[in-house]
């Protein structure tokens, strides 16, 4: 088989010998090496290597320049494409640099092409939107949680970028009410899709749904292991007139106002504030009604536990009258430590009721007669801190009144004193 026949079978062109000779002569005249192509041919090959584009094509390219209101992208065409700022993102941008940077690879859709003006307009937003809707529709079906950064704080809620504009209504951001969202910008939220409407370009999201599900899970787990008398660490979440709600691990328990302190408390704010870390004791667990009763004071040493180190029998201390009853007065000698002053120990003179000489809130000096911390009891005396000041009677009427009162106060007739025994010499002198 001849060389010419082989070339014909392979599809290669066969040139006459004289043409080869002419080419050799031309090469010799130009000084080019054998086989080198003229510049016009190389340029033509370079043009042939360029991609061909039409409106609607999806292309990948690299950002080569970022300007304030547009981005230039090399997509392998004979000139760079332009992405206007409005076509960069589904969200409003003040500057193109907020969305892309030089060297970043982007995927865009050809919006228009004009070779005469060398103008190739692209849209990154169009490609992102299609991908985003497909992803969001899958996520709505599966109920998966997605993360997104807050791009804008607007009236009524928050805006996030998901490739399309997503909206989180204010009522769906947290489990609790939020008055001011100004510091939420750039925060990352964990969200579930509530509503999708592709035709209206509407995406409604909720973080509250995610938090609610987590709360219910934590609550079930906590109730399964919570027991009375456990001592736990917690954080004060809310104050109400009747107590404080404390978070003990994702679930709130109530510390009733009576369990806040060993001292009397008029309002919880006197003892704690929101955000305080406190130690609490579990008083009661009610899984059926999902209630937990807690105590702050029970988690602290009781006032009677240290009273033995503070006082002893015979001490004279200052206290405050807390309550008056028919048989005496209760006086507080230390926070949470009250003792009884029996009516017979209030005054040297006879009194019918304690409120004849005492009033609640009054400060008094008392002597500790007996102290029993284990039973949380103390016997006190006011009169033993004072000197007896019994003046002699001046008239017979006064004598008879004293005698009458003494007879009433004595329980045994054997202890009744006669007038002569009582006043003896004083009566003789008066006579």
From TrEMBL:
Q: Where is the composition biased (Low complexity)?
A: 22-33
Q: Which SMART domains match?
A: S1 (SM00316)
Write down the CDD domains for this protein, in alphabetical order: S1_RPS1_repeat_ec1_hs1 (cd05687), S1_RPS1_repeat_ec2_hs2 (cd04465), S1_RPS1_repeat_ec3 (cd05688)
Which PROSITE patterns does this one have? S1
- What's the superkingdom here? Bacteria
Domain S1 motif, by residue range, is: 56-125, 143-208, 229-297, 314-383
Instruction: Report the protein name in the record.
Output: 30S ribosomal protein S1
Organism of origin: Ferviditalea candida
């Amino acid at each position: 088989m001849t060389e010419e026949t082989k070339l014909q079978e392979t599809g290669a062109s066969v040139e006459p010998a004289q043409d080869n000779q002419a080419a050799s002569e031309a090469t010799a005249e130009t000084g080019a090496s054998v086989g080198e192509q003229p510049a016009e041919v190389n340029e033509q090959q370079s043009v042939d290597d360029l991609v061909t584009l039409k409106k609607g094509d999806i292309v990948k390219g690299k950002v080569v320049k970022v300007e304030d209101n547009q981005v230039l992208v090399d997509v392998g065409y004979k000139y760079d494409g332009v992405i206007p700022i409005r076509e960069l993102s589904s969200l409003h941008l003040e500057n193109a640099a907020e969305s892309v940077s030089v060297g970043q690879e982007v995927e865009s859709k050809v919006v228009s092409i004009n070779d005469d003006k060398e103008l190739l307009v692209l849209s990154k937003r169009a490609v992102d939107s299609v991908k985003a809707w497909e992803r969001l529709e899958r996520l709505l079906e599966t109920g998966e949680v997605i993360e997104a950064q807050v791009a804008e704080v607007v009236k009524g809620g928050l805006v996030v970028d998901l490739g399309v504009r997503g909206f989180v209504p204010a009522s769906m951001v947290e489990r609790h009410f939020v008055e001011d969202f100004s510091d939420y910008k750039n925060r990352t939220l964990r969200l579930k899709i509530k509503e999708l409407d592709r035709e209206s370009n509407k995406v409604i999201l909720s973080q509250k749904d995610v938090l609610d599900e987590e709360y219910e899970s934590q609550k079930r787990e906590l109730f399964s292991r919570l027991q009375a008398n456990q001592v736990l660490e917690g954080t004060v979440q809310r104050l109400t007139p009747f107590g404080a709600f404390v978070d003990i691990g994702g679930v709130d328990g109530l510390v009733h106002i009576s369990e806040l302190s060993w001292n009397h408390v008029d309002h919880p704010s006197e003892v704690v504030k929101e955000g305080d870390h406190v130690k609490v004791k579990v008083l009661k667990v009610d899984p059926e009604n999902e209630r937990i009763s807690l105590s702050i004071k029970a988690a602290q040493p009781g006032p009677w536990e240290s009273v033995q180190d503070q006082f002893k029998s015979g001490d004279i201390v200052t206290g405050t009258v807390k309550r008056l009853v028919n048989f005496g007065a209760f006086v507080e000698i230390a926070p949470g430590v009250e003792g009884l002053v029996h009516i017979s120990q209030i005054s040297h003179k006879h009194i019918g009721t304690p409120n004849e000489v005492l009033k609640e809130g009054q400060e008094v000096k008392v002597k500790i007669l007996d102290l029993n911390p284990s039973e949380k009891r103390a016997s006190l005396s006011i009169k033993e801190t004072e000197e007896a000041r019994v003046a002699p009677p001046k008239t017979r009427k006064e004598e008879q009144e004293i005698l009458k009162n003494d007879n009433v106060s004595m329980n045994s007739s054997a202890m009744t004193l006669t007038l002569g025994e009582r006043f003896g010499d004083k009566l003789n002198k008066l006579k």
